[in-house]
Amino acid sequence: MVNKNERLKQMVENDRKVNRMALLLTFAILGIAFYFIFTQDITLATFAIIIMATQLPSLYRAWHRMKLLLTFNDDARYQKFVRLEFGIVLANVILLGVFIAIAWAIEGSLVVFAIMLLALFIPFIFLSVWVNRKIELIDPEHVTNHELRTAHRDEAKRQLK
Question: Which has more confidence, 91 or 112?
Answer without folding.
Answer: 91
